[in-house]
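Q: How would the C-alpha cells look for this protein?
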Amino acid sequence: MSEWPTNSESREPLDRLNKPIIVGLRRCRYDVLGMLFKMANQVIPIVAAVDDDFRVRESIKSLLESAGYAPRVFSSAEEFLKSGTLATATCVISDVRMAGMDGIELQRRIRLERPALPVILISAHYNAEVRQTAIDGGAVDVLFKPFDAAALLKIIQSALTNSRDK
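A: Here is the predicted structure in C-alpha cell form.
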C-alpha cells in the first residue's frame, strides 16, 4: 500500500483511489505519435505544471520527465509566480480550479508578462464557458481529467513548435 498523499492536504493512500488522472502514461514514455524526442545537444524545454492536487502534479512531472522535458511543479499559482520560473518556462500547464488564484487568472497574468508563452489548462469539471474564456484568453488548449498522456504531449510539442515559429 502506497503512503503517498493524494494532494497537499490529504494523506489518503493512493490505492483507495480508482479514477486515473492521466490515461496511458506508460505507453508513451519516450514517444509521441511515433516521434522520438531527441534532446541531446539541445536546450531542454522547461515546462511548468501548476495544480493543487499532489497526484496530478506528480503524474505530470513523471510524464514530462519521461518525454525529455525539464518539469517544474507548483501547488499554487502564487507559488509559481513567486518562483521566477515564469521567466524561463517554455510552456505552462495549469489546473483551472485551485484555491487562491485560479488558472484563468494565472493565464491572464502570464499574458501580461509573456504574451507568447503557451498555456495549457486542465480541469476535472467540464464547463464550456470556462473553456471558451480560456481559449479566448490565449490558452493553447483545455483538457479535462482524466486526459490521455499522449494527447497532452502532442499539445505541448505543437505549442512549443508554434511558439518557436513566431
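Residues 149-165 form the longest helix (17 residues).

The domain at 21-165 is CATH 3.40.50.2300 (Rossmann fold).

Upvote if useful.
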